[in-house]
Amino acid sequence: MQETKADLGQLGGVMKEAEDTATADLVENYPGKDSASALQLFLDRIPISSSIPGIKNATVVELKTGDNVKDAIQLLYTKNASGAPIADVLDPDITVGRFSDRYIGFIDFATLVLWSLEKCEKACVPTDSHASEENGKSSLLYLLEQNPQIGHTKVGELAKSFLWNPFFPVHLRDTLFHVLLLLSKHPVQVVPVVEQSDLQVIGFVTQNAVIQLLLQSDGLELFDSIADKSLSEFWFENEENLISVYGDESIAKALHALFKSQIGAIAVIDRQTQKLMGSVRSSDVYLLMENDNLFCNRRSVTVEEFIHMETSTPDLDPAIERDIGALLSAGVLHLRNNFLPRMDSPVTSKKTDTLKQAMKNVADNKSNFIFQVDDLQRPLGVLTSRDIILQFAPPSMNSNIDGGGFFESAVEQTGCQVKDGTLVCDH
Q1: Residue 184 pLDDT more than 60?
Q2: pLDDT-derived band of residue 181, with 50, 70 and 90 as boundaries?
Q3: Given 110, 270, 289, 363, which is the most exposed site by the fewest CB atoms within 10 A?
């Protein structure tokens, strides 16, 4: 605990030094710049290595394009990993020259499971409720084993269905601004951190970690001028992309809706009152592996029963929660995350709340989304972590900001370029 406090104390010092440097730079070289540009300069003074002290403590699981779906699901579940980079290793003796050559994508556990279930449903594959008792395997893994046309599909083939996330890494020496740029320009949940010496992924920076790091700027004018505005003053990309199911509908229908969702969460609504009663998230999919009865009866068990059946987590010391801060959600991608809110306790906000209040709500609950509700708790929309991050990464950037070699490489990979201070994309 003392080491954690020391790490956060060090982070506070880094933030203060970055603010002082950015402020001096603005006054001398960029007079009259708006708050967004000032904030970008500020973030470009904060290196990943010092802002996320626990980044090197991650155990990274790696998948290969030749791995089959069943084995990939089993590996991630066994290693307690919610996702993994995908390596295209044709010849291990070949040395690659760019950090992006080894890894060609990223995929998460929930996507693999939901894709498998979609294929099984379309093929009308029956579920053997006694399979796990007879062979000691998870019913899901047994189902995929008995249906090799699905379970033996190569991870590399899933790229055709656009199920991969793009792989845009950063180095420890890069800054929070680089991470912010990638998260805002691409629909990725995490940014991998690559060791420069051997090109291996050593950890991850999540969207939630970035929000927690941005909140370290609370009280700074550069940050408050944006964050103190009410949510009603912003336009959010995913605000109207609310997908919902009723509590009396089946888990199977909820899983189908979750697969179609682009944000990794769906709302659960009470049919009579239309009130928000919970949510089903990508992070909850692993429960199908934990509970064979749930998996086998997914067409009959209701969503309401599902969101109430998860085992409650012992209450955590709020002091520990505050002290650990951004270190919890950065670096490690755990499949089983005790810090997530229960499915029947959705994170909510109102349009009158400020952006800062929504950020703190998301950060405190380690969530990747927040439902907007009215005074009667009826859902109006949903905000994702990426929606929030976008407010701090406007498209207009100062072309004089030198992001270093990685910045040029990252922009090149996106098919974009900075022209006259604006990010211009070729597509």
Answers
A1: yes
A2: confident
A3: 270
pLDDT-based confidence at residue 26 (cuts at 50, 70, 90): very low
- What is the per-residue DSSP string for 274-319? --EEEEEEGGGTTHHHH-HHHHHTTTTSBHHHHHHHSPPPPPPPHH
Query: Which two structure tokens, joined as six digits, stand for 315?
Result: 């209450």
Are 411 and 389 a contacting pair, CB within 8 Å? no
Q: Which two tokens stand for residue 129?
A: 């409720």
* DSSP summary character for residue 233: G
Tell me the C-alpha distance between 42 and 176, whole Å: 9
Task: Report, as an integer, the average pLDDT of 322-340.
Answer: 61
- Answer yes or no: is pLDDT of 36 > 90: no
**pTM attached to this predicted model:** 0.82
> Phi and psi for 329 in degrees, rounded to 5?
-95, 5
